[in-house]
Every structure is written in C-alpha cells, then in structure tokens.
Amino acid sequence: MKVSEFFTDKVIENIKEDIAESKGQEVFILGFIDRESGKVSEYNLLARGNKEMVPAIINDLKPGTVIIHNHPSGVLEPSAADIRVASRAGNNGIGFAIINNDLDDIYIVVEPKIPLEEVELEAGEILSFFEPGGELDKKLKDYEYREQQLKVVKELINAFNEHRSIFIEAGTGTGKSFAYLIPALYWARLNEQPVVVSTNTINLQEQLMEKDLVLLKKVLPFSFKAVLVKGRGNYVCKRKQRNLEERLADLYLDQADKQIELMKVLNWLDETGVGSRSEINFVISSEIWEELASESDLCLRTNCPYFDSCFFMEARKEVFSADLLIVNHHLLLSDAVLKYEGGGTDTGILPKYKSLIIDEAHNLVDTATAHLGKPFYVSGLNKYFQRLYQNKFSLIPRLRSKLTSYKDKGDFLKKIDSKIIPQILKINDLQAGYFNNFKNIFTDDERIIRVTAAVKESEAWQELEEYGGNFHIEMQKLGLYLHELYEEILKLDPSTLYELEEVLMELESFIVRIQLFANNLDFNLQAADSQHVFWIEKKQEGVYNQENAPLEIAELLPDLLWDSLDTLVLTSATLSINKDFSFFQETLGLEKSDTLLVESPFDYASQARLFIPDDIPEANSPGFMENMIDYLEELLLKIGGRTLVLFTSYNMLNYCVNKLSNSLQEKGINLLAQGNFPRNYILERFKENDKQIIFGTDSFWEGVDIKGEKLQYLIIMRLPFAVPTEPVTAARMELLKKAGKNPFMEYSLPWAVIKFKQGFGRLIRSKQDKGIIISFDNRLITKHYGKIFLNSLPAGCPVEQKSIKTIIKEDI
Ligand code: SF4
Fold it and tell me: Ligand 1 atom closest to Cα of 307?
C-alpha cells in the first residue's frame, strides 16, 4: 500500500514535522481512521523515543484506531517486540503500521478495522425507561412520570441521531440529568465514542457520579464506564515527590506547622493508590501541594522513571477508555485550548470526542471569559523565581552543581555565574519596583481599575509603562540566556545528555514560562488589543494582578470548541429570557442552534406566591435600605426563620446584618450571614432547625437546594443587575453602544433576568414544597422591563401587588 492511500496529505505533513521535531528519533502515534475515506485523517502523538508506552495503553484503545511508529533506519521489517505489540493490538481490533522517517514507505503489520457505521438511537427502547412501570419507576423509590422529561429525552435522541446543536431550558424538577444521561450512554455504547458531560459545580458532578450513574448501572442493560476527569494538577507527581523527599531535612526548618503538614502528606502518600488531592481529608496548603502536583511542562512522560506507576498516567488511561466523561467547564475549556493550540494532534486532556452535553450552561460565558484572558500575576512570577533560584534545590543551583562534574564545565559555569544569576537578581529587583508603581495608580479605597485610554494617559501609568517596558526587556534577556545555555548543553554527548535529562526538561519548561510571563506582561502593559478589556486588581497591599478578558467569546468558541462537534446540547434551568434563547445563542456564537423550553412540572399556581410591595421607594433610590430596614426587620421577626434573603452586594448585606442581628438574636432567630461563615457550613446549619435565616449575596443566588419545610420564604432585596462599572460589563456595554445597540436591553437586562430566575428557583425544589417570594424591588411592576422578568418566571406563579404593610400583616 502506498503511504498516500493510508494517510491524508495533511497527516503526512504533520507526522513528518513531528519526526523532525524529535530529531529523527522514534515517535509513537495513534491514528484515527476516517470512515468515509478509510484513511488516517487525525492522530495523537503518544510518545517520543520510547516504546514502553504502547503496551501500557493498548488495552484501552478502540477499533478504528491504528498504532503507527517509525523506524529511523528506514528498514521497516517489524522487530520481535513490534510483532508482540501488533498481535495484542490486532486482538483488540487496532491496526499496527511502521513508517520510515520520510514517510514515503509503509509496512502494515495489522490492518486497522474501519470504524463502525454510525448507529442511530432507537427512540422506543430509550423512552421505555421513563414510562410508568419502566425500569426507572422500578428502581427509583419516588419516581414520577413527567411529560416534560420525555420531551427532553426525545430532543436528546434527535440531537444525537441528526448531529444537532440545541439549547434546552428544563425547569426545576424536570429530571434533566437522566434525560440526557441515558441517551448519551446508549450513543457511547452503540457507536464506541465517548460522550462528554460538562458541569459548572462540584455538587452536580457529585450528584451525577455518586447517585445518577450508580443507579443507571443497575437500570441499563449494558455495562459502561463513566469517569470524573480531573486536571493534571490534582495528582501527585512521583518525581516531584522524590525531589521533595530528598530536600526534607532542609525544608520549613522554622515552621513547625508546615513540617507537621508535610509529614501528614507523606504518610498519606504511603497509603494512597490514586494520588488525587480529593482523597486528602486534612487541610493542605497550596504551598505544599504545589511542591507535589503534576505539571504538564515538567512531566517527562515516557522518559520518567515513574511512568509505569504514575498516578496521572493511570488516571489518563481510565479517561481514554471511558464511555462517559464528566468534566467541569474549566477543564472543558483548558482541553479545547490545548487541542486548538496543538493543532488537535497530541495535546489536550480529553480523548477526541464528538458529542458534548453542557449542563449548567448559563455559567459557560463567565467561565470562558475568565479562562480566555492572558493575565500577569505577581504571585506566579514570585513562585517562578523561587523555583529558579532561591536555594540549593532550585533549578539553577542544581543545574550548576550537575555541570561542575563535566570536563567542559568552564563555559557553562561562566554563563550561569556571569549572565544568568546576575540577570535573575536584576529582575527580582525590578519586580519589586514594578509593583511599587501601582501604588500611584490606585487611590486608597480603589480595588479594581479598568485600564482605559484616560488611565493610560495618566502620569502614573506612563511611569509604570516605562518601568514595565524595561522589566519586559530584562525578562526576555533572561529567557535568551537560559535558551543559550540550553542550546549549549544540547551539544554534549548523548550519554551526558541522558544524565541531565531531568534538569534539561525543567530548563526547557522555565524558558517557555519566562517567555509567557514576558508576553503577558507586555500584553497587559500595552493594554492595546481592541478585542480585550484590561484591568488591574489590588489583591492586598502591595499585590496587584493585571487582568484581561476577551470582549466577545462568540468569535472564539466556534473555532475552539463547537466546530469539532457532531452533537452539542446546552442545558440549564435558566437559558431563556422572556421565553427566547437568542441572548445565549448570540453570546456563545451558536445562532443556528435549535432550542427547546420545557416548563417545570411543579404547580407554581398552588405552590408559590410572589409579592411585590407597590408602595415602597425604588430599589435604586438614595437611602433605599435605610427606608426599608424596619420593614425587613418586622417581616423577618414575624416569619421567625426558614428564610433566604438575597442581596446584590456585601455593602447591603453587612448593613442589614449590623442593623438586625441583635433583634433577631433576642427572638432566638439565628442569622447565618455570608462572609461570616463558609457557604457549606451555612447551608448545613440552616437545615438543623426552623429558626434560621440566611443572608446571602452572589453565590447564594444559585446552587442552593433545600427541599421541604426548612426553606419557605425567599426575599429578594434588589434585582440583580451587574455593577455597570465592573470592567468586563462596562467594556461589553460600550461595545454594544458603539454598534448602535441598546446596552441595557441587550446586556444588563438579560443577565439580570437569568440571575433573578436562578434566585427565584431556590425556593420550590420539589412537588411538595410551598413558599412565598417577596421582592423588595418593585421595578418589576413600575418599569417597562419589569414584564420581561415576570414573563421569564415559571408559568402560573401568582404575582400580587400590595402595600408592604398588608403583605407583612395579612399574607405572611
Ligand atoms: S510521568 Fe510525569 S507526572 Fe508522572 S511521575 Fe513522571 S514526571 Fe510526574
């Protein structure tokens, strides 16, 4: 067979580049066969220069793939080891081929299997699980047949069979997780393709992994593998562990608490089989965890002495053989960025996938915004320099000591002593001065400053820019010096290089990192990219972060994520505004996607009442809280507990805590205020008895799930409009204005409606729940846009306008 009959032209070119980058050494590749052309159309580079990885992963590969490696000698006859691996591959339906370095010759040891024809989902079989008397009914104690759930299942089946993208808003109580999990598992099973489910919160991941999927293992007529995927940084790197143990006698000499913590971690490491941070049941500081956590650019992969027992590599094998992968939005985006930057070949955290379900999809915009910026953090730079040159265990001293044993050490040591170390010291000095410059930009009470044209023209910024420009040049110089040293070392003979392999790998990663620091510093200092908004945040005295975010993620996500998918489902209880999905469709760059709105199966007409006082001042009028505090007090004392009060700022929340905590306490009512206690503690304490009230802001507007009588009242103090001066909000609104659009109607309002719906949804969590919502913000009835909020609420909820006194005296 000719090479061109086996690979697409693009793959031939890319593999040639990979071999050239590996300096002609062996590379191991996993090729994916395109069903239509029968050619390898995509591939992952598995390993360079080492055969050990192939047997390690072969059990987890799927038919339709082919293991390919090169024989640099050009002699393509398989060795005995090749035959051994090839026969194992063949037994699993996986092909095995050998190529030469020029890719003009190929020896196919085992023909790969062409992937299966796509198998469509059988609606009848899947829907039967949800019917009365069906398997879910038999296995779930309080299962209820819900037409709404069936609607979602049908759409999922169509989305998989017809390769569609769809937004599904499923009201609270629809049972959407089973509605997407069962079709997804059938699809993965029938088509031997993984399906990825992304969530925003750990709570939902836990619910899926520990409840829903456990039950489905008993319900479905086939076995499946579902894996919760964690990022690399969640696993201990055994090589870093060894390095840490070597330094033990010198670590934390005057910090007894840190030494105790370290001992606890090492004891845990003696016991653990998975090396995952989530297993640790004591508090571990980020400082110690970072000493141990696996890092991509420091990983030696197949060249690592611990490769065979590496925690992360073991976890990765599980990931690559799973039917269903549960991830969070951050990991989803990290993987997408890695795949995009790596050209979709050997990079990424997840295997190649074509079907994606995004739950809690209303959070994706914020995650993408946060994830796609290029920040410059002083904390990151400090850590970098500590690891580069702080003590004898840092990279440069270690490298220097290793190089002293070589006969041509003179040049190396000169370069380190006269160029690199002075340059590091110089940058350290510059770094301290750089952050001093920020003091002149901030006034005492400012925490965040958006970098606008006016700020850039100020004298303080000009000084920062001049100083930072020099800082940037010196960082680049350090990168250059490190690179020169690296290039020189590479000229040593192969056996010396082998001995230096670990430190060289680290050096390589430090070169990449200093370049990234320099680039990000420059990007933030220029603050000139019109596609980004820039700001500076004072984290604490003397600590400033430079941040930025893309203005429009709709431009980025198609290339990054959507275009590689066959099936995409975005779901949440809050995706529509006024029954319309266009806000999220446009914001996420998915204008052509389908939509489905499924109302909650709860009977809001009988389960809930929304009261809006019609005789109070507007919630954004001066002195609003001062005017309302007595009413709030009267209301809370009368209710006596079982209440969640949602605020839109800590200022407002703290004002009410100060004014009301004594009177509530006198009546035996416990006030659980956000900021005074951790979120989980508040939620657990709240369930202990009826005489408790939660005061919450931002994070309490969503994710609070308290069923039953413990939560019967919800008070919304103000409509949750974003702060208009917040940099991302302000910049995006300006952009809309420039485009001749109405920023309030097209940005502020939709986000406020989504958050209001989330807040509203905290009250009724089951068919048995009953409760009252009181909105202290009567713009719901006094402003033209109030109708948009009200029309976005669950159908049937009674809305009553009355005087505040009547509500307190007669309705509570
Ligand atoms: S393979 Fe990578 S992550 Fe695993 S122990 Fe080695 S260096 Fe660490």
Answer: 1
